[in-house]
Design a protein that fits this description.
By secondary structure, the protein is an all-alpha fold. It is 77% helix and 0% strand. The protein is elongated, with a radius of gyration of 19 Å.
Length: 193
């Protein structure tokens, strides 16, 4: 369908962006990159295309390029909270924790109901070596998304880091029955910690 759209209208930036995003999700970065670059060339004011290009660079472990495109996307659509979260994550990777804190604060302000803002903020605290504060942010995220296993995993890891084995074991036991290898491995690691 996208190929037909591009054949009919070769300057359709959205089609290039969609195709590039799909290829990025399939980890076909070499194929995705020129499509996303073409999308941003055809329509440099499309925040989604810049965000997709930022995601591609993030997955290729190119935080400077990812940050550049996430920042452009945030400038083009200043009310998109997820772009601020992505900026925060890249800034943590680059060690610019003060600027990361500003980006995460923006994300939390733009969408106070989504757990990604507190979760990414926890990574700032963790990068600063403050596991207690990171745990507090993860708990805020869990208030927003109590069933999110990504947050639960991070909480378990932080509890272990803080030496709170009993709390980590209790949290693991409170989870639904383990269904995946990762769940079983996590449970075994906690039980024998």
């Amino acid at each position: 369908l996208l190929n037909r759209a591009l054949a009919a209208s070769p300057k359709l930036a959205d089609a290039y962006a969609a195709k590039g995003w799909l290829l990025t999700e399939q980890f076909k970065f070499a194929e995705a990159l020129p499509l996303l670059q073409k999308a941003t060339q055809l329509n440099p004011n499309d925040s989604a295309s810049h965000r997709y290009l930022g995601n591609l660079h993030d997955r290729r472990a190119e935080p400077n390029k990812a940050l550049e495109h996430f920042t452009t996307a945030a400038t083009l659509d200043p009310r998109d909270f997820i772009t601020q979260v992505f900026r925060c994550i890249e800034l943590v990777d680059l060690g610019d924790l003060d600027e990361a804190n500003t980006a995460c604060a923006s994300a939390r302000e733009l969408d106070p109901t989504h757990f990604w803002g507190p979760m990414a903020t926890a990574w700032i605290s963790r990068a600063r070596g403050d596991s207690e504060q990171a745990l507090a942010w993860i708990d805020k995220g869990l208030q927003l998304a109590p069933d999110d296993l990504q947050l639960v995993d991070q909480k378990i890891d932080l509890l272990l880091t803080l030496g709170r084995m009993g709390d980590a074991r209790a949290l693991v036991r409170s989870l639904p029955d383990a269904e995946s290898f990762m769940d079983l491995a996590r449970e075994a690691n906690i039980e024998f910690a």
